[in-house]
Structures are given as C-alpha cells and as structure tokens.
Specification:
alpha+beta; D-Maltodextrin-Binding Protein, domain 2; five-stranded mixed β-sheet; four-stranded antiparallel β-sheet; 14 strands; 23% strand
Length: 312
C-alpha cells in the first residue's frame, strides 16, 4: 500500500509493509512527491486521492486498532464497489486538509459532516452513516460537578461562558449545528498535532483540561484503549439531533466526478457488512438506542428529506 504524508506544503512518501493480517508498520522513505494534481495520465486518472489524518477512531494509523477506524474501513469499502479505481492515501493534519479543499486540490476526505445546502469548500456525497450527536466528554469527578451545576442535558452556551472549566479540542475540528456557538468562545486549547481527540482525552484524564466536545464513540475508543472511564453528557442545543457523515471532495470538476461515482454505489456502501460492523464496534455501549436501527432510520429520513427538496 502506498501512503503519502503531507505537512504544510511538504509531502513525504510512506510505504506500508504488511507484517501479518492484523498488524502493519510504516516506513518513511526518502522519495518526495509533488502535491496531487489533475492529470491526463491514464495511470493517475484511475486513482482517488484520500486525505486522512491521525484522529482515531475515525482514522487509526498505528497501534492496536490500526486501519480499523470508521473512515479507514469506509475508504476500503468505497473501493470494493469502485474496483476500477485505486486509492492513494495522503496523511495530513486537519488544518492542511481544509487548506487542500480550499485550494481545490484533487483530494477527498471521507470523514466530513454532511451539509445538505453544500458549501464552497467541498462537494458532498449522500450521507454514508450517522453518528450519535456530539456530547460533552469529561472525567467522572468533573461530570458530577457539571451535572450538579447545570443538569443534563447541559446547556453548552452556559458551559462555554463558565471560564472555570477548560475546554480543549483538536485544531481544525468542526461541530455541525454547534459550530456557531463554539465560534463565539475561544477554547483553552485548540491542539494541533497527531492523536486528535484521543490526545485531548488524555489531557482531561491527567487534569490538564476539564472537558471536550465530541462524539460518544471517542470516549468508547479511549476506554477500550486505555481502560480509563470517561463520562459523556448530552447537550441541550443538539439533543436528539443525529449527525450525518459524508465524503467530501474538492469543489471542482474532478471532485464532482468522484462524488457522482461514489453516490452511484452508495446503497452498497451503506449496507456493506464490514462497514456496518466497524460502526457497531465503535458505537457499542454509548447509547440505549440500538445503533443499527438508529443508523438505518436516520439515513432513510435524510434520503426522504433530500427527495422532498428535489421535488420542490
């Protein structure tokens, strides 16, 4: 497998050598690669450039669950049904992914939040799957304090205004319907670098931060990996509002072509057993609602809403 590591303006080639069926090691080579460009070269035209980032359990680049992230498996499944297209992996920090899309570089990112109205930055596929809504995630002692002060579901507006509690999240992360509210407050820490939300949870566990905002499956991953309990608290501003995941590609002719092709196989992607299994794995024990039912009914509702919009 061929992977590229991209920093800010720098691209380093990485070769993945399989040690066995469940474990892989990364070896960085000295080969330098140019930024991906649209080309007429036949060999390049059958490649789909995927931007990925070190942010488990969306992408798990190393460790016990390597390549078992939700979006790792999503990419694999896309190519299962688009077998004439080969993947190229471009490992970037989250802000660099946003920059690549803004620059209309020929890349797709598999872990975006679906926006039915679209945006200038990217063109979106149909929803691929659902997430339970974003929650406040914290340690057990802080959770008791927050619930005593503000109840549950908690008002995020009130919590953000309380400067006694230190908020941290990965730099470049976006939070759907919560984003306008989050934009009104500077976090104690917007952390750049590898590890994503898991690095933030480590800081909460060690007392350097008080809380973050993220999907319950992040806490589930952290608990499975480190056997340290984290508590999720529902947020009143988005309570009972699922988040739809989608693939986003550069908003240009190349990106629109990729999204058109992906959408044609979306029914197979959504029902793929391997994809459903990884979704169940990371969403298990995080809600009293059965995830399969939650995901299936939610996707149906999004499709019906899209159909109504097209008719109008």
């Amino acid at each position: 497998m061929y992977i590229l590591l991209l920093g800010y303006g720098l691209t380093v080639a990485v070769t993945v050598h399989a040690a066995n069926t469940t474990s892989h090691t990364l070896q960085i080579t000295n080969e330098m690669q140019a930024r991906p460009e649209v080309t007429d070269d036949t060999e390049e035209k059958d490649r789909l450039n995927w931007a990925i980032t070190d942010a488990p359990p969306f992408h798990v680049i190393h460790g016990e669950y390597q390549r078992q992230g939700v979006c790792d498996v999503l990419i694999k499944v896309v190519h299962r049904y688009m077998s004439d297209t080969r993947p190229r992996y471009l490992v970037m920090p989250q802000p660099r992914i946003a920059q690549a899309l803004d620059n209309k570089e020929p890349v797709c990112f598999p872990c975006m939040i679906f926006k039915p109205e679209g945006e200038d930055r990217a063109v979106y596929s149909m929803p691929t799957h659902l997430y339970y809504p974003h929650h406040v995630i914290t340690d057990e002692n802080t959770a008791k304090t927050l619930k005593a002060l503000y109840g549950e579901p908690i008002s995020l507006a009130t919590l953000l205004a309380d400067t006694r509690f230190r908020l941290g999240y990965p730099s470049g992360r976006r939070y759907g319907v919560l984003q306008p509210l989050i934009n009104e407050h500077d976090p104690y820490l917007a952390r750049s670098g590898p590890g994503g939300s898991v690095a933030i949870l480590n800081m909460i566990s060690s007392g350097r931060l008080d809380y973050t905002i993220d999907y319950p499956m992040i806490a589930n991953y952290f608990q499975q990996l480190y056997n340290r309990n984290m508590v999720t608290i529902a947020i009143s501003e988005n309570d009972q509002q699922p988040v739809a995941g989608a693939i986003g590609c550069a908003n240009n002719a190349w990106g629109k072509e990729q999204i058109s092709r992906i959408n044609r196989v979306m029914p197979q992607i959504r029902q793929d057993p391997e994809f459903l299994e990884v979704l169940r794995m990371w969403h298990s024990d995080v809600s009293s609602i059965d995830f399969n039912m939650f995901n299936e009914q939610g996707l149906r509702a999004f499709d019906e809403a899209a159909g109504s919009t097209e008719q109008n």
